[in-house]
């Protein structure tokens, strides 16, 4: 069983990897990202005006409310996930740590790139995330998520006004970046980066479940990584 963590490898048929709080966070976070992406797109590209009084419909108001509510869910989930990285098992810390100083990490990262490019006959076994997935989870979910929260709450602070906690914590972002529209542009482009990542994530998860030597999708449901053979 190939691992870059420095832990001795043994032959196993199944390993309990993702604890219940991690799995719940994963699916709640996936739902929050979906709502954020759909409502964010509609905020940037509003629907055609409806006839009658706006107060009779309040369509865009409801869309914006869903966007803000999902943003709070994403923030609370992120803080909880940070907490669980401290108290959970070692696999729960992968989202916030990247062993870039280990030569084995980079060599196995190259192997995974070759595997996804159909240049390797079979993938290696990993208990947690494989190196390529690990790298992108840290870059997109952790770093990208922080960028989206900072820019999102900076824009939200324009509505809550001076003196609100949103303005106290994130109001500095707008003048630091330039102006409100600049922050809005970066926030919007960040949405598309995450949307592309989600599509690739779903594709690779299905592909790995079919073609690799270990389970992937069912692992995030049950928590158990199932191996399809006992070869190392």
TrEMBL record:
Location within or outside the cell: Cell membrane
GO biological process: respiratory electron transport chain
GO MF annotation, one: iron ion binding
Keyword Cell membrane: yes
One of the Pfam families matching this protein, by short name: Ni_hydr_CYTB
Entry keyword Membrane: yes
Protein name (database record): Ni/Fe-hydrogenase, b-type cytochrome subunit
Organism: Allochromatium vinosum (strain ATCC 17899 / DSM 180 / NBRC 103801 / NCIMB 10441 / D) (Chromatium vinosum)
Lineage of origin: Bacteria, Pseudomonadati, Pseudomonadota, Gammaproteobacteria, Chromatiales
């Amino acid at each position: 069983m190939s691992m870059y963590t420095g832990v001795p490898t043994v032959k196993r048929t199944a390993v309990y990897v993702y604890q219940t709080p991690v799995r719940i966070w994963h699916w709640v976070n996936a739902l929050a990202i979906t709502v954020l992406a759909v409502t964010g797109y509609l905020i940037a590209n509003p629907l055609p005006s409806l006839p009658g009084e706006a107060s009779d419909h309040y369509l865009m108001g409801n869309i914006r409310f869903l966007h803000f509510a999902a943003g709070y869910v994403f923030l609370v989930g992120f803080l909880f996930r940070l907490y669980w990285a401290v108290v959970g098992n070692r696999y729960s810390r992968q989202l916030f740590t990247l062993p870039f100083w280990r030569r084995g990490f980079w060599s196995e990262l190259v192997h995974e790139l070759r595997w996804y490019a159909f240049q390797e006959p079979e993938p290696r076994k990993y208990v947690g995330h494989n190196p390529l997935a690990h790298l992108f989870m840290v870059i997109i979910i952790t770093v990208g998520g922080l960028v989206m929260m900072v820019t999102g709450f900076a824009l939200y602070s324009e509505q809550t006004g001076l003196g609100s906690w949103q303005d106290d914590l994130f109001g500095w972002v707008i003048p630091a970046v330039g102006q409100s529209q600049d922050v809005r542009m970066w926030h919007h482009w960040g949405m598309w980066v995450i949307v592309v990542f989600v599509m690739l994530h779903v594709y690779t998860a299905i592909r790995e479940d079919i073609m690799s030597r270990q389970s992937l999708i069912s692992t995030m449901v049950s928590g158990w990584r199932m191996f399809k053979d006992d070869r190392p």
